[in-house]
Amino acid sequence: MKVVLQNLTKKFPNRNKKGDDVIAVNDFTFEIPDGKLIGLLGPSGCGKSTTLNLICGLEKPTSGRIFFGEDDVTNLPPENRGVGLVFQNYALYPHLTVRQNILFPLQNLKGAAKLSKAEMLRKADEAAKLVQIDGLMDRKPSEMSGGQQQRVAIARALVKMPKVLLLDEPLSNLDARLRLQTREEIRRIQRDTGITTIFVTHDQEEAMSISDMIVVMKDGIVQQIGKPQDVYDNPINLFVAKFLGTPPINVFEGRVSGGRLYVGDDEVLRVSGAEDQPVYVGIRPEGFIPQEAGPLCCLLSGVEVMGRDTSVVSSHPAAVSVNVRSIIAADYPINREAETVRFALKPYKVYLFRKDTEERIPFEAV
Ligand code: ADP
Ligand code: MG
Hints:
Rossmann fold; alpha+beta; 7-stranded antiparallel beta sheet; binds magnesium ion; 6-stranded mixed beta sheet
């Protein structure tokens, strides 16, 4: 089922003295293709949950419309939208068994949709198999791990075979290893069922790893939409560049002058297509090449070997943050005793941004 958001806006009245409204979602327009997994990504408070709540009908938009396929569902109550919801806290009924928890949404079906007992049990079994908890059907939530409880919550959201599945930070309460495993499970389940899914997270790595497309939000406003790799490679502004990638992009004060790009006083690249101006220079950690006579001169603070790669921590007077982090293939020798380390730069890992609007400035390396 394709989901269309049209100029979707949600304002909340503010309780502070000034009384300005909080615009939790600001003019969100996007067509979510049928059967895809979309990662909705942004820092806490940027409007992710509000967007999900608008889609499922728990909140009413201030303006704008929502379509499921060709149907306008903007005024439809949540129970008639055919949406499955999973939250961060699994919100299972503690006194019910796993089977009873999964059955619960089916028992509330009325009229023509009402199912026989046998049908309900069959559907509950199917949903449990999908998330691989069919061996635990008689347990209570308290007798299960966090990861298993979250699977039950997912099974419960799937049991009515929703048209759209909405997941609001579903992995936040799991430990690192389980998070990894469960996010792969979610991807598999989504592929198996073909249900259009929106996955909300503040964790860029999580969103990047499982989404067909990501939507990056800030302060209620969509910044960029695209395939994860495209957004990483072509961030539209400094915010998006900084939000994607671990370690994060390194940001420096710099300038373009007479076809040369300077980071502080270091002339690092010859460039064309960018006007002379002060800029922010973003360099991805994988964009540094250690080179004896390299143009970017950093003060070496430490070298961390991480197996396949080496992480070089250094500093530079023009860097916006204390540390400059670069990831170097382990076969480059780094002299740990040296005071400085010099780098050449991979031009396609270097980004320029306007100092005023922080928008990306296109350029070509020459
Ligand atoms: P996220 O899920 O990305 O962390 P939310 O959608 O929960 O963000 O919130 C977006 C903004 O809207 C925040 O500034 C939040 O304080 C505000 N907000 C959310 N719900 C309400 C509400 N019911 N009343 C007032 N403000 C709200
Ligand atoms: Mg939220």
